[in-house]
Amino acid sequence: MQPMVKVIKGKLVLGRGGALVLLVILGGINRIASKDQYITNRSPITGPSLDSVVSMMKQGDLVLRRGRDIASFMISRTNNKDQNYSHCGLVQVENGYPFVYHFIGGDQAQGLHRDSAQVFLSPKHNNAGAIMRYELSEGELQKQKELIIELRKNPRPYDNEFTLGNERLYCAEFIYKVMNTVKADSNFIRTRLNNGYAYVPLDALYAGKTSLIWQMTFK
User: Fold this and answer.
1) Helix axes 138-153, 171-182, angle to 10 degrees
2) Distances in Å between the alpha carbon of 23 and those of 26, 31, 125, 191, 218?
3) Model's pTM, two decimal places?
């Protein structure tokens, strides 16, 4: 029997069922991270504190992170080129504070989550983070906000099968579908084929499409 997930020349190749294996792993580790408590100025961090990082965030920003365990490492290897990140979310500013909306799986509370920016980037469970900024008009920002509000009102389940074309969503697919709708361009963010299987790598969300606002590796 062929392995469902294997590494060839430093890159993960998904065989039959491999996407499901990765998504189960992804859902579990991201669910653990989301349960963290609110953290302010947690040490050790090199560079600006999380408070000052949070102040950099604006409506519509893309926020990235990578967990500290082997599962997050494996997920990061499915990216096109930049293998620094394993999870992502979109910033929505509410009453002056940036919250990160993202899709996670796991045994409980699957689907769209709303975490404070401090929790999402907590060094307790992550060893890297970044903020990327799309160039968005006021109309596009409003459209993005409306799409996320719609998802809150009409929740979609987490996509444990890592497939496109159904109502279920995983983290990168959520942003892929939101941003392609916002931009009214089905090719604004493109999928990738891996062993004949189409999916959305995290770096496809920002490579050549965003400005880097901040990035850091936590000690």
Assistant:
1) 130
2) 5, 12, 18, 16, 25
3) 0.80
Q: Among 148-152, 195-199, 211-215, whose mean pLDDT is lowest?
A: 195-199
Res 170: pLDDT: 94
The two three-digit tokens of residue 205, written as one number: 């969300």
Amino acid at 143: K
How many CB atoms are closer than 10 A to CB 42?
15
In SS3 terms, the chain reads as: CCCCEEEECCEEEECCCHHHHHHHHHHHHHHHHHCCCCCCCCCCCCCCCHHHHHHHCCCCCEEEEEECCHHHHHHHCCCCCCCCCCEEEEEEEECCEEEEEEEECCCCCCEEEEEEHHHHCCCCCEEEEEEEEECCCHHHHHHHHHHHHHHHHCCCCECCCCCCCCCCECHHHHHHHHHHHHCCCCCCCCCEEECCEEECCHHHHCCCCEEEEEEEECC
